[in-house]
Design a protein that fits this description.
The protein has nine helices and seven strands. With 314 residues, it is of the alpha/beta class. The protein has a seven-stranded parallel sheet with strand order 3-2-1-4-5-6-7, sandwiched between helices. α1 packs across α8, α3 packs parallel to α4 and α4 runs parallel beside α5.
């Protein structure tokens, strides 16, 4: 790729997992990438150092920026830093997320709210910081990293995470239509269950309410371990988590107005792609029926775009 055509990208939750892999892959593709993470001077200082070392070793433009998605002030400051430093922002990647595992009943409402705060409200805070700039320039891409659990197979003991991911997907779908007339494009990248190459399961939280756990352990002994093992067995051995990063790079490098609305990266094939194909087609057909088919593709008064493709074949 011609580096003069590189984009300025912010990717949240880029300290590890899909985020770190995507940040490096995007930098390798010639983009200026800001790997956003919280506590860059504390517990994530070593990840900042790793990013700097990678940039130096590979001769790419990979930078880091402090961003805690739980804080609007932090999101605002991160976007302001990027704009002051790079002078532009072209792509926003919503990747930050937190997983918890355990019987749903054992989680307090406050614990469910905390998962929602990170996985859903975090995207809203970052959008509120970045979208004024993307709207003003009438161009850009918002890329959401979702989950096949939104519409595919849903094993038990992951309900708080699944519920939050479903809410994030619904938010992304609504934003897609609301941003189209500003020339801002939306893509939802949908990873399946990658049980290695990320820290989702290793760093996932657990319920604090332990009084109900014995009853579930009696009937569902060792279930979480069984779920992880069976998910791992479904995926081909040669399906690394870097496939998600590759898909993100492909979307970013696709010309504006030509990007797919949804891209699945699911080696285990849990059925999500099939269900999403129907849901996205119905969305396109319904918006067309009510005369809002122009919302199916990015355009602006300054640069009208034909919605002929309607993303319906995705």
């Amino acid at each position: 790729m011609d580096k003069t055509m590189g984009k300025t990208i912010v990717i949240t939750g880029a300290g590890s997992g899909f985020g770190a892999l995507a940040a490096r892959a995007l930098a390798d593709a010639g983009h200026t990438v800001y790997a956003a993470m919280r506590d860059t001077r504390g517990r994530n200082a070593h990840r900042v150092a790793e990013a700097e070392a990678y940039a130096a070793e590979h001769g790419v433009d990979l930078r880091t920026v402090e961003l805690d998605v739980l804080s609007q002030e932090s999101a605002d400051a991160a976007v302001a830093t990027v704009l002051a430093d790079a002078g532009r922002l072209d792509v926003l990647v919503h990747n930050a997320g937190h997983m918890v595992t355990g019987p749903t009943e054992a989680f307090t409402p406050e614990e469910l709210a905390a998962v929602y705060d990170t996985n859903v409200l975090g995207t809203q805070r970052v959008n509120r910081a970045a979208l004024p700039h993307l709207r003003a320039q009438e161009h850009g891409l918002v890329l959401w990293v979702g989950s096949t659990s939104t519409r595919g197979g849903t094993p038990p003991y992951l309900a708080p995470y699944f519920a939050a991911k479903a809410a994030m997907d619904a938010l992304a779908v609504s934003y897609a239509a609301e941003l189209a007339r500003f020339g801002i494009e939306t893509t939802i990248v949908v990873p399946g269950a990658f049980t290695s190459g990320t820290n989702h399961f290793a760093t996932g939280g657990h319920p604090s309410e332990e009084t109900v756990l014995p009853a579930y352990e009696e009937r569902y002994a060792g279930l979480m371990g069984q779920v992880a093992e069976r998910l791992a067995a479904l995926a081909p051995a040669d399906a690394p988590a870097s496939l998600v990063a590759d898909a993100i790079v492909e979307v970013v490098d696709t010309p504006h107005g030509k990007r797919p609305f949804r891209v699945h990266v699911d080696p285990a094939d849990d059925g999500s792609e099939e269900v999403s194909r129907v849901a996205d087609r119905i969305r396109a057909e319904f918006l067309t029926r009510i005369g809002l088919d122009d919302l199916l593709a990015p355009h602006s008064p300054a640069a009208p775009h034909s919605p002929a493709a309607l993303h319906s074949g995705i």
